[in-house]
Amino acid sequence: MIELGEMRHGESADEPAPAPPRRPPGPTARVALLGVLVLLVVTAAAGPARRPEPIRLPAPQGAAFVVLPDRVVVADGPGAIGRGGRVVAAYRLPGGDPAWRFALTDGDHVLGLTAVAGGLLVTSSPAGDGDSVSAMLDPATGTLRWRHPGYPVPTASGGLLLENPRPPGAGTVRAVDPGSGAVRWTLPVPGQEVGYRRDDHGVTQLVLVTPQGRVTVYDADSGTVAHTGRVAPAAGRAAYRYAQVVADLLLVEDARGSVTGYGLDRLDERWSLPVGSRAGLWFADCAGMVCLRNQVGGAQALDPATGRPAWTDERWLGMGPVGDRLIAAERGVGEELELSALDPPTGRVLARLGRWRVSGNDLPSGSLLGLRTLTGNRTLVGALDVAAGQVRIRGILPGAWSECADTGTQLVCLRPTGGMAIWPVGR
């Protein structure tokens, strides 16, 4: 069974609208009425209306996929099982007809598929060790436009950075034109990994910190130096345990075992927090707040201006920013977690979203999807609107499904054991 659709305001499933009084039908009307009754009887005898049948596509177990406006692209299949190469295959929507196939280098495996600047970016890596590679394909034909080493990082203006993390002193970041693949500039990474300052659309600045405390901030579009400065050096001037960009702050650990927050615009010291030698701690951006997390769960949110604790809650197993809200998870049933929408400055629960597994293949422009296993071997699919604190049910699908994407008129879902299906749904 697939259950879809919404009732319009004023509609009722229980009471029909009252009909105006009617006079008895004449002879001609009685003949017409008899014909309608016969048609209804024949239709009823044919059985209930059949549920929509999905369009099925081949896909290996654990395949990566992305949904574009007029096609779905599946990586690592079909036909990759038992063969040295890997295949990226595209199928047209809504019918699922094959569109094109693109073969990766033998031994490569796909890390991700991303729609960028009107193209399809396929990121792969050799099995075992080796640099990742980004290849831009024409989504209509599968033709290779360009290929460069590096892992893709989108910029806020629509550009693309390719990061090659290597041992200190050997890494690089290069900016490429997404359309042509032309290299705009290249930046060596002399110290630890590069930090990124982001807004809602992508990276705006790159931040490099040497173990000696030398900081250089670069513009993500031009590669030019925005400003430089100094912070406390790493312990022993070897490497920082913490050196990251969070909520418009640069966080670094000094020799005293304290993490200090510096404002990125002037590299002015804002606050310092003792962390000692505690293992398993990390800092994360919580929609403008600085969250201090640990491996056993729970979270503490710090005021980015002062570093003082704003709130603490031990029940959250994980959380992440969605717009200007937080989505937080506490223990549920198996892989399905109880999700809530939080107010970042206070940690207050704004809405309970229910028990879901969050799908990793939501469309970038759409809302998150949640999946829940129902009795009778069925899967409930809901669109999670964190900003509104609401869930819109998109369908109840027969069978078990591990990932789904919502186009607005179709649900494209992957089975845990392999294989995909396209289900028609309403907006």
TrEMBL record:
Residues 87-312 form the Pyrrolo-quinoline quinone repeat domain. This is Outer membrane protein assembly factor BamB. Gene3D superfamilies: YVTN repeat-like/Quinoprotein amine dehydrogenase. It comes from the Bacteria. InterPro entries: PQQ_rpt_dom, Quinoprotein_ADH-like_sf, WD40/YVTN_repeat-like_dom_sf. Residues 17-26 have a biased composition (Pro residues). It comes from Micromonospora echinospora (Micromonospora purpurea). It holds the Pfam family PQQ_2. Residues 1-26 are annotated as: Disordered. Residues 1-12 have a biased composition (Basic and acidic residues).
